[in-house]
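Troubleshooting: if your tokenizer reports a length mismatch, compare your output against this known-good record of 342 residues.
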Amino acid sequence: MARTFEALIKAEKEHQMRPEEKRVFDIGPQAKLHIRENVKIPHRGVKELFSVKQFRLFTGPITRYLKKRPFVLLVMLGIGGGLIALFLINSNEQRVSYLTAPVIRGNLQATISATGTVEPEEVIDVGAQVAGQINSFGKDKNGKTVDYGSAVEEGTILAQVDDSLYAADVAFSVAQLQQANASVRQAEADLVHLKAKCYQAERDWVRAKKLGPSEALAEASYDGYKSACEIAQANVKIGEAAIVRASGAVAQAQAAVERAQRNLGYCTIKSPVKGVIIDRRVNIGQTVVSSLNAPSLFLIAKDLKRMQVWVSVNEADIGNIHPGQPVNFTVDAYPGRYFAVR
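Known-good structure output:
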């Protein structure tokens, strides 16, 4: 009766295996291989199994050979490690996937790419014609302080510049105008006085001419009346010239007043058009200095519905651009969205 595999292993350890259960083969002068018979193991067609003792007898010569030649062991370990690494790399590789699409017939479109900026068609640069410190900002039509994006109407106050110096100039100019008006009135009064003296001198000269140089009128007196009449007439002309001079001073003073008032009005920065503020370039407390070029304070776009694209096109492509061609552009604020213009 055949024994089980576990019973055969136990008998082998106790050296109680039956003679018909093993057969000895001479495999060399140094080792013998004991092969079990009548033991069947259903493992991929293998019908015979080495025992632990038999395996040691079989590997003994190999172990002694590797100890004498260790480089052979290193080569074998290196080859084994390489095979393991190759296996791991191949196992981690991802499969390549392909996207396919049906072939269709279409149109070939030639495009020219360029980079630029999108700007309003009409932009008003509001500056300051006077120098001074920004005291405050105005209010938009919603009652909020004007700033970037504020909608303003024509005449809306944008900012207020310190007007203390310009108000003093107005007061000084008004005082000079009043002084010039007083000078005119004084010149007019002096002219009336000179005309009265002239009339008296003319009357004396008329009487002197009637008498003539005689015993009743000395020749010196005759000449004196004549000279007094001529001097009086000259003084009247001087008085008239003084009035003209005083009137000119009045006009000059009036112009100075108007100039001072205009500069005082420039301290209030107003919107010249209706639009939207797209840039505010000053802050409260900042000092603006007016020179040959007025400092820019605000940028106002009249109509944000009408925009234009400023781009720099390569010289090699500029010959292919003609008026009326369709154009598409994109902006960073709306990625993937195309805007069509002409």
